[in-house]
Specification:
By secondary structure, the chain is α/β, with parallel strands linked by helices. The chain has two domains: about 1-110, NAD(P)-binding Rossmann-like Domain (Rossmann fold, 3-Layer(aba) Sandwich), CATH 3.40.50; about 120-275 and about 310-320, Dihydrodipicolinate Reductase, domain 2 (2-Layer Sandwich). It has helices at about 10-20, 35-45, 55-60, 75-80, 95-110, 125-130, 155-170, 280-295, 300-315; strands at about 1-5, 25-30, 65, 85-90, 115, 140-145, 175-185, 195-200, 205-210, 220-225, 230-235, 240-245, 255-260, 265-270. The protein is globular and about 75 Å long. The protein starts with a strand and ends with a helix. The relative contact order is 0.16. This is Dehydrogenase. Pfam families: GFO_IDH_MocA, GFO_IDH_MocA_C3.
């Protein structure tokens, strides 16, 4: 099994520690957290080994799981890569596109693999319909969260919207041509609610809304394409697929048939795939282990993480235009 160590033992870091410890493909060696009081508490409460320095942890493992604040991603990744270790980076990949591009260059130079923690790619509802989404031409997403002070030091685009940016980029095989956006800071110093409209070169339009000051939680996306409507509920982990086909000459008693203004008749039918429940974070960690062991391309590459970050910053930059 690959030896893995976790950098950062905050809220998400503890989750990564727990799941890495449960994994049948990874051997959790321990963790490093610069807050000595927190490190001692985590070691005492859960029994994970706390390393005294980041260098000692990196030396002891094959894979470094970086679950630190975004500001430190680049420095942590740089140390791990130079030491020849594979890296798993929580989203966003880095604090800037320049840092992300340097991480990519370093990884190539030192021949190590990297994956970014865009966990919604491993959401069972999204996985169930990923191959059904073919050339979508309109996408609408809503990611709403109740207020939580944690994470409000960055714009909601980097905190929440980037999940949907990555998912959209993974299914639209085209470059972004135009971006129109607006954001409002209600409670925080940076925008708490934002809307972005992405126009792709192939004509697809994505309308993305994110808020961290909602009265309820919601994480839904809808994909519209020729003869199909696909809905994904990331929170409830379910999906709905509605398709259309040419109506039979003699419809059955229960067939749902629509006729447009030109007289063309279409039959509506439901084609809901089986959603196989999973732990998305454990899946992404083990998926990365498979990529290393089999020498294949990780499902969410460093380049994917960088592209999502680049679009996120373009959205932020367009707030004031």
């Amino acid at each position: 099994m690959l030896k893995i160590g976790v950098l950062g033992a905050g809220h998400l870091g503890k989750i990564h520690l727990k799941l890495a410890n449960q994994s049948e493909k990874l051997d959790l060696v321990g963790f490093y957290d610069p807050n000595q009081e927190n490190a001692e508490k985590v070691e005492k409460d859960f029994g994970y080994k706390a390393f005294a320095t980041i260098e000692e942890l990196i030396e002891a493992v094959d894979v470094v799981d970086i679950v630190t604040p975004t500001l430190s991603h680049y420095e942590c990744a740089k140390k791990a890569i130079i030491a020849g270790k594979h890296i798993f980076l929580e989203k966003p990949i880095a604090n800037s596109v320049q840092e992300a591009e340097e991480i990519i260059a370093l990884a190539k130079k030192h021949n190590v693999k990297g994956q970014v923690g865009h966990v919604e790619r491993f959401n069972p509802a999204f996985k169930a319909v990923k191959n059904i989404i073919q050339n979508p031409m309109f996408i609408e997403t809503h990611r709403l969260a109740e207020f939580n002070p944690r994470g409000t030091d960055v714009p909601v685009v980097l905190d929440l919207m980037i999940h949907d940016i990555d998912a959209i980029l993974s299914v639209v095989q085209s470059e972004v041509k135009e971006i129109h956006s607006s954001g409002v800071a209600v409670i925080s110093e940076s925008p708490d609610i934002a809307n972005a409209r992405l126009v792709f070169e192939n004509g697809c339009v994505a309308n993305i809304t994110s808020s961290r000051i909602s009265l309820k939680n919601m994480r839904k996306s809808r994909f519209f394409q020729k003869d199909a409507y696909i809905s994904v509920d990331y929170l409830e982990k379910n999906c709905e697929v509605v398709k259309m086909k040419d109506a039979p000459e003699v419809p059955g008693e229960w067939d749902m048939v629509l006729q447009n203004a030109e007289g063309v008749k279409k039959q509506i039918y439901f084609d809901n795939p089986d959603v196989k429940q999973n732990n998305a974070i454990l899946d992404e960690l083990e998926s990365f282990a498979d990529a290393i062991n089999n020498d294949t391309i990780p499902l969410v590459t460093l380049e994917d993480g960088t592209n999502a970050l680049r679009i996120a910053y373009q959205i932020i930059d367009s707030f004031n235009k």
